[in-house]
Amino acid sequence: MKTTPPTTPTPDDAALWHDGRLYLADQRILPERAEFLSYDRAAEVATAIRDMVVRGAPAIGVAAAYGVALAGREAYSNAGADWKQAIEADLERLAASRPTAVNLFWAIRRMRDLIARLEASDPSQALLDEALAIHEEDRAANRRIGDLGAELITEPTEIITHCNAGALATGGYGTALGVVRSAHAAGKIQRVYADETRPWMQGARLTAWELMQDGIPVTLQADCAAASLMATGRIGWVIVGSDRIAANGDVANKIGTYGLAVMAKYHGIKVMVAAPTSTVDMAIASGAEIPIEERDPDELLGCGGRRIAPAGCAARNPVFDVTPAALVDAIVTERGVVLNPTTEKMRALMD
Ligand code: MRU
């Protein structure tokens, strides 16, 4: 962890603990401005997750873990030895911030397990140490995912990615973009086509920003341009992250991923899903059980702060979809690679 006071965030600084406060790079305003917001209360962290200051499944988990550390400090200062009762409302607030990324619930579960083992004395340092460990482990997992994913790419190629599964979406380095970083270092990535990713434009704003800073060739395209690009025969892989992977290998990710996977199948292009095992939810049998977040239709009815649809127009704004396991060629985790995922293979990975 950094020890200097935070100034301007780099892509690796989605979340940063410094001097008793949590700093989150404000991902709503990148790349126009690179600024931190700082937090010392869990309730504010929950709001930051809901409002997309921090986003991306693993980064949401990391932020929530720091949120629990802040909650513990506040609960002990307010309630002393009764802090375990006092912390409960904040744990629930954090859990209610967004529904789809299971990393949020995984991180809160891990913090809860620690809470159950702690005494009535001040929990602040123990909770912070666990949050720092979750952060560091995610960083390390992404490095491993990057290397394993890069090994699957057998010859130099161009790839398509969707949304942002980069350093900004994780504890650092990135999942899908971690694979891109490792594969690019190995000379295997000729160009990344980044879907712009309506309506939040994570591809246009965040993926393009991250890759350009690393000198990795990136070309932005409208989401609907992917099929005609695939038809040129230049694309070797679609590489994406995930918010939740069910026990049978069905994958929830940013809305539009399912469509990309269908198109990839038609064109004989492989689909790689890169995600840490904290994204795998063995408690649900299939993707049909994954809660899909629906956000405010206003996010879709406008663009760049300007209204684009006629007044009174209805809009649906599901922000994730589920890609069936049958359309996924490889799930790459820090524990290993699952080719053509099935329940048996996912169980073998997770056991
Ligand atoms: O709504 P977001 O920006 O949180 O959605 C993020 C994604 O869909 C990412 O692809 C996913 O979380 C994987 S991030 C490593």
TrEMBL record:
It is an enzyme of class 5 (isomerase). InterPro entries: IF-2B-related (IPR000649), IF-M1Pi (IPR005251), IF_2B-like_C (IPR042529), Initiation_fac_2B_a/b/d (IPR011559), M1Pi_N (IPR027363), NagB/RpiA_transferase-like (IPR037171). It comes from the Bacteria. Pathway: Amino-acid biosynthesis; L-methionine biosynthesis via salvage pathway; L-methionine from S-methyl-5-thio-alpha-D-ribose 1-phosphate: step 1/6. Substrate binds at residues 55-57, 98, 202, 253-254. It holds the Pfam family IF-2B. It catalyses: 5-(methylsulfanyl)-alpha-D-ribose 1-phosphate = 5-(methylsulfanyl)-D-ribulose 1-phosphate; 5-deoxy-alpha-D-ribose 1-phosphate = 5-deoxy-D-ribulose 1-phosphate. The record marks 163 as: Transition state stabilizer. Keywords: Amino-acid biosynthesis, Initiation factor, Isomerase, Methionine biosynthesis, Protein biosynthesis. The active site is at 243 (proton donor). GO terms for molecular function: S-methyl-5-thioribose-1-phosphate isomerase activity; translation initiation factor activity. GO terms for biological process: L-methionine salvage from methylthioadenosine. Its EC number is 5.3.1.23. SUPFAM superfamilies: NagB/RpiA/CoA transferase-like. Catalyzes the interconversion of methylthioribose-1-phosphate (MTR-1-P) into methylthioribulose-1-phosphate (MTRu-1-P). Also catalyzes the interconversion of 5-deoxyribose 1-phosphate and 5-deoxyribulose 1-phosphate. Part of a bifunctional DHAP-shunt salvage pathway for SAM by-products. PANTHER family: METHYLTHIORIBOSE-1-PHOSPHATE ISOMERASE. Belongs to the EIF-2B alpha/beta/delta subunits family. MtnA subfamily. This is Methylthioribose-1-phosphate isomerase. The gene is mtnA.
